[in-house]
Design goal:
10 strands, five-stranded antiparallel beta sheet, mainly beta, Jelly Rolls
Length: 163
């Protein structure tokens, strides 16, 4: 895991079929900014960068023709429901999610910040029928800005329309 400045974390993740990776803020915050980039280049997971949880209860949608990853931002309490397989009971922060398969998901909550101070977690799920790989940049600190968030957000919108 690479840390740039105070709170910008970067790393790579190899996600087996249906598994979910997550990383939570170390303290309550009301901001998150992240970029998740799907890649076909095989890579190993960065040591110490988040946690991978095997899929529970429901299988991923393996019949879809598109590829990519699904990301969501959850509070720590909602993350517990999600990783325990209570998929119909958790609440994600929809404005901070890419809930369809995308190649690049870039989200920033600086304008406006989230209403509630909480421990927030970024999750990335592999809905594909094969191991998938991602490069991830994340910040839980309002002082850190990801320069390419705005450009990638436009790409996300285009990819959502295509799927």
């Amino acid at each position: 895991m690479t840390t740039t400045g105070a709170q910008l974390l970067t790393g790579s993740v190899a996600l087996p079929v249906g598994d979910t990776w997550y990383l939570c803020s170390l303290q309550p915050t009301n901001r998150i900014a992240y970029v998740v980039t799907y890649t076909t280049v095989p890579t190993t997971s960065t040591t110490g960068f988040g946690t991978i949880v095997p899929f529970v209860k429901i299988s991923p949608n393996l019949t879809a023709s598109s590829t990519g990853l699904i990301s969501a931002v959850l509070s720590r309490a909602e993350l517990t429901k999600y990783v325990n397989g209570q998929f119909n009971e958790y609440i994600a922060l929809y404005s901070c999610c890419c809930d369809v398969r995308v190649i690049v998901c870039a989200i920033g909550s600086d304008k406006p910040p989230m209403v509630t101070m909480d421990t927030y977690c970024l999750t990335v799920r592999n809905p594909n029928a094969f191991t998938s790989y991602a490069n991830i940049e994340i910040s839980f600190d309002r002082q850190v800005e990801l320069d390419h968030l705005e450009i990638n957000f436009i790409i996300v919108k285009i990819l959502r329309k295509a799927n």
